[in-house]
Amino acid sequence: MSPARTRFAGAALGAGTLLLTACSGTSGTSSASHDSINYALPANFTPNWILPIGTAAHLNTNNISIANTLWEPLIAYDGSTGKIAWNKAGSVATAADFAADNKSVRITLGDRHWSDGKPITSRDVQFWYDLIKANKAQWAGYNPGKAPDNWTSFKAEDDRHFTLTFDKAYNPQWMLANELNSITPLPQHVWDKGGDPKQVWTFLNNAAKNIAGYQKDALWKTISGPYAVKSFSTSGKVVLTANKKYDGGEKPGIPTVNLLPFTTADAEKNALRSGSVDYGYIEATDLDQKGSFTGQGYTVKPWSGWAITYMPYNFNNPAMGAVFKQLYARQAIQHSIDQTSLAKVVLNGTAVPGYGPIPQGQASDFLSPVQKDNPYPFSTSTARKLLTDHGWSEQGGVMTCTEPAKCGEGVAKGTKFEMQVLSQSGSTVTDNMMSAIQSAFAKTGIKFSIKTAPVNSVLSQTPQCTAGQSICKWQLSFFGTAGSWYFNAFPTGDSLFQSKGGSNFGNYSNPEVDKLISASTTSSSNQAIQDYSAALAKDLPVIWLPEPVYQISVMKNGLGGFWQDSLANFHPAQWKWTS
Question: How far is 35 from 322, CA to CA, in rounded Å?
Answer without folding.
Answer: 58
